[in-house]
Amino acid sequence: MLFMLVALMGITVTQPGILDQTDEEWTAPGYRVVEEVSINPLDYGEPISWGENCNGPTASIGCQAFFMPTENGEKWRIIMLLKDKLVILQEDEEPRDIPLTCSPLGIIYSRNGRFALVLGRYIDSRRGMYAREADVVNIETGGVRTFEALKNTGWPSMFFVNDDGSIYRWSTTTENPLEYYDPDLNLAFSRETNVGWGSRFGHASGGSIIVFLEAGNILTVYDRAGTLLWEKELDVTLQISPFMVSADGTVLIMSARTGLKCFDGFTGDLFWEWTDCHTVAPVPSVSGHAWAVSMTTKGLLFGVDAVSRELLIDMHYPAETWKRGAPTAVANNGACILRSTSLRPRYQNNHLRKIIYTSTEGAIIWISTPFSTASSLLNHSRCNNSEMELRFGINIQSDGERFIYSDYTTVRIMRVEGGGEE
Predict the structure, then answer these.
(1) Which of 72, 287, 289, 311 could form a disulfide with 306 if both were Cys (CB 3.0 to 4.6 A apart)?
(2) What is the pTM of this model?
(3) Short-list 271, 307, 273, 272, CA closest to 289
(4) CA–CA separation, 366 vs 414, rounded Å?
(5) CA 199, chain centre distance (Å)
(6) Domain ranges for the chain
(7) Each residue's pLDDT tens digit, 192-210
């Protein structure tokens, strides 16, 4: 697949209303999108639990896809949380099982697919206590360690697992402490914050910074030593999405009703701002500085170098029966995977989804057939990541040539072929 990435000076791309034209799979002329592999997670073990939907039994699991750099190029990796183990499927390798010491209820992944925090059953939920079992898993080695911090206190918490296995933990107690555990799971710092429940947040997957919106609409950025690097008071009328932070922490993008602001993650200096319309849910690439954000009234806005205001594509596509698509995975070259939700009144079913693949030039290349998140065999509710890019089992290769998604029956690994130089 060949794409030539040109210097884009705020280019606007308007796409025909193809989302409304068909409920069959659609591929742009000159392209092929082929399924390389189809995986049924239930072939590898029992789910965490069984439930019922309108079509019968539904299996509750935690499944996430990744693309791993190797000496022979990127290889796909599927990690599945099942009843008593993690199952690791990786391209050109035999399946691996990693037995767990806890009774798993949910899982939080690092963005690079090398570590996971498995949240187990509650030990004591009396008198507001939420002590629980938890395992920290090194996916590369298969090593499993008990996360003792959750047994020693009763904090209900939010967790961010970094690419080196370190963990940020934010408590929802009165003091709202923020803690950082190093890769050996030693407590490196604990400090009080002024963060309320439901606050917006973000973190660099490399672990260098963590971002919160504190009381009074104060944007605060801490480093891994617990030092407050900078803070800004924001307009109190802002309604913002979780912050997008690049893996290295150098770029922070804030999405709001008024548009976008892009900051230096370490200093708070403003790189640029864009004020054309309401934007939500910015998503970063796994590495590099590519990003994408949904525009509520138009379509998709994205760039391949976050620090450059000039490298933006403003993508418009009309749709009356489907939402225009929220980005869930972005390649380093700007190719995107979007999830679109059906709109009333045509379907009367907001559980229907389509997956959309867009090229580096902002054009829709492929649209999946619709599938239901509420009446299919698999339930992915055991994935507990807060990051937008790790919530739906979707991922994309760094060059955009392959992507992975689940239609809630199977996990599908797809290859994009065709296209040409513009």
Answers:
(1) 289
(2) 0.90
(3) 307
(4) 11
(5) 18
(6) 11-418
(7) 888 766 678 889 999 999 9
